[in-house]
């Protein structure tokens, strides 16, 4: 009975093994690969831009202050409107200044008359001295009197000029053209020469400056790119810049970088880049927050890699999957240098002709066999061509 039982157990094991072998897939189904969409990489010159943030600054600012003392008799401008250089802004009571000018003019006439008399006396004594009718001392005294009269005349003329300047300063004019702000005084107010508080402020806002802030580390990176030749730029052509307003609207006129301050803040580690923009429609207002894109140059041999194809690990390093010659997914580390639209700008780690996996890579691992299918990506980064698995019937049906 024992040998019969052993034969039965052996037979059961053999049957189970046979069933197990029949259930395991063989042939094409066992060798099925993951289908992935890929694009072929091509190197190309890629414009390199620098994205910075900053604020709008007036092209010129003038704080209007009185240069003489007096009472404001009239205000000749509308607050918040544009004024031109030389326009009358304030009129200070000038009665005292007119009287001072009249007195100075009279003093000049008196001094001129004294000069004429002294000159006549000197010339007469000089002629008499030739005939020994008067002494040399008399001639010297006459000459001294003439010089004093001429000096007094020059002083009187200077006093007249000062009086006329004060009279002119009683009319306060715009030193520059631009938008004028709120007046800090009203008619009847007493103002003093060179007072601390400005009567009004004029800001020239066409064109305007935009002060942008960048880090010193980024500055060194860009400088190295130029020095090594990786970043190219035409000599003598200023860097252009584009703006984006606070509401996300692009600002149409392009600007150009006018200067870069070569002083790094000791506390912030940043420096200022200034760009100049035309502002004919007065859209840009001093103090407005904007974003700028500065065109630095061109990366000669770079790659545009769709952002969807790039993943980053915990260490922050960027990687992509490349289809190898034996049709396996190979994880490759890349170096990125900013973005262009929906693409990463890649400068190292890949080469022309590589097949970059852009779809179906979510479940991939390094070295996994794949079935590559050519795909295309539109400008929004969406894969337009469907993979074969989306249209082909399931295997075994």
TrEMBL record:
Residues 102-167 form the Multidrug resistance protein MdtA-like alpha-helical hairpin domain. It comes from Rhizobium alvei. Gene3D superfamilies: 2.40.30.170, 2.40.420.20, 2.40.50.100, Helix hairpin bin. SUPFAM superfamilies: HlyD-like secretion proteins. PANTHER family: ACRA/E-RELATED COMPONENT OF DRUG EFFLUX TRANSPORTER, MULTIDRUG EFFLUX PUMP SUBUNIT ACRA-RELATED. Belongs to the membrane fusion protein (MFP) (TC 8.A.1) family. It is found in: Cell envelope. Residues 301-362 form the Multidrug resistance protein MdtA-like C-terminal permuted SH3 domain. This is Efflux RND transporter periplasmic adaptor subunit. Residues 207-298 form the Multidrug resistance protein MdtA-like beta-barrel domain. Residues 61-202 form the Multidrug resistance protein MdtA-like barrel-sandwich hybrid domain.
